[in-house]
Amino acid sequence: MRGLRGVGMLGGMVAILGGGFALAQGKPPALGAPQPQQQPGGKFGPAPAPVPSPAPPQVDKFANPPPMVTPRAETPPPAPAPRADKFGDGGAPAAPSPAPTPPAAAPAPVPPNEPAALGQLRAMLGPGTSLSYRSAAETGPRAARMQDAEIRTREGERITAQEMVVERPGADAIGALTAQTLTFTTKEGKATAIGRMELRDFAVQRPAPGAPMRPDQMSLGLLRLEALAVQGERPVGIAEILVQDYRAGRAGRATVTGLDVLVPEGGGVADRVKVARMALEGIDLAGTLAALADKQTPPRPPGAYTAAIEGVTVTQGNAAIGSLGAMRMTGALGQGGPDTGRVTLEGLRVEPFPMIAPWLQRLGYQALTGDFSVESRVDQAAGRLELVGMLLGVRDAGAFGLSLTMDGIAPEGSTQEKFAAARLVSLTMRYLDQSLLQRLAAAEARERRQPERQIREAWANQATGAMQGGTGAVAPVLAAVQRLLRGQAQEVTIAMQPPKPVPVSELSGAASGGPEAAQRVLGITATSR
């Protein structure tokens, strides 16, 4: 979602406090693990139990965004104009017109008797960034409170806050900083409103002259941003962003709650997405962002890691399109053994929106609900990958399972490079019909005005043609598939156990030789019941 790019401006705001990205080199040298998720119920037995409903919806940030402080600049940005709310009860503020880059104002003189802590903050910000305020007072040793504060860079970026408290500022660090009712405005005039900000144990490493600041040259113990409203063509509201232990080479934690995004160009499918919570733990956040900026492979997690997305709802106007109870991912690096990982999707639901409503109605579905899970094991030393029990189940439709083993996986490189020499060791596919084929046969029988048995027999004949008669070694495979199509079996399992591993690049060639040749090369077998 490109609308989330506005959240990236928050990094720029923190960078300004550390000296600014563009101005960092112009400053004189400084003086002086979770519990594993329980395996869901088997997809090939009774239908799984319903998943609890997603978390309750968050307060509508678009209806009541945080107030923005009008900067004490010569040309304040225009207030956003109201617009018709196509989203029902909560309307998003219209994006303000891009404001021209304000001229570089002469630095305001330092007020007399300024608290010493603010002088240290000025030194940290550097000569290209100005600091002004309506009033200021000391609140303790090396601490000061400002009212109606403004920080502005030479390029025109600015931060305003009704109140800002800074503690223990240094040449390249801030012990703590809290602020209320902030507005961060880019030089293009795009504004982000923040109800409250808390920053602790912040430090920067200055880049070499002429070099940009990298994400891993900043560190912080805690960053908390509350009640965000990002303006733009895709407005974004966020209840809270929390980042902890953001340091290169260290496992950090990040949480976003109450995400609300408007997508006006959603193609007529969806125009609003809400997420109750997103969380990430156990990842080197600074190193990962630096690697992504350099288009490099992110560093391996230093230990166990978890990620979760909970309470997702997608809507078009006032109509629900779909929802997701939770997506969870867990993993751990092997200590002398394989790396392991697990991904689950719980409570996935797709509503009958216009694109698929006729198909659902034809088959008698009010909606589609289901879940998904997959476990993996990767032995980096042996170059071996195993997908263990990938399961996709759609309630009152069917369940599909897949197990896969490959070797020849390279330990380093891009995804394409890692799998360039991969070979198929084994593969097993399993399908359990839980009324989908029956619904399809009934619908086709109604439309063709033929008995269902005749429809199913036609399917079986089509399978015979697809397998070129299904003679010889292919006959058992064809028989298993035909029993499923005729309704004589509910479950079919197709397995590939090649006599020797087959390079992935040669699989298409094996299939082009015909069903019988493919059966010999891949060792295909099938059973049904």
Give a verbal description of the structure:
The protein has 529 residues and is an alpha+beta fold. It has 10 helices and 20 strands. The chain has a 20-stranded antiparallel sheet that branches. α6 crosses α7 and α7 runs antiparallel to α8. The radius of gyration is 30 Å and the shape is elongated. The N terminus is likely disordered.
Low-confidence stretches: 1-10, 18-101
User: Which structural class do you get from the secondary structure elements?
Assistant: alpha+beta
- Strand residue percentage: 35-45%
Q: Sketch the topology as an H/E string, one letter per element.
A: HHEEEEEEEEEEHEEEHEEEHEHHHEEHHE
- What is the terminal separation in angstroms? 45 Å
The number of helical elements comes to 10
The proportion of residues forming helix, as a percent range, comes to: 10-25%
Mean pLDDT: 81
What does the overall shape look like? elongated
- Biggest sheet overview: 20 strands, antiparallel
Kindly provide the radius of gyration, computed on alpha-carbon positions and rounded to a whole number of angstroms.
30 Å
Number of strands: 20
Biased composition (Pro residues): 47-57, 64-81, 95-114
Biased composition (Low complexity): 24-41
Region (Disordered): 24-116, 499-529
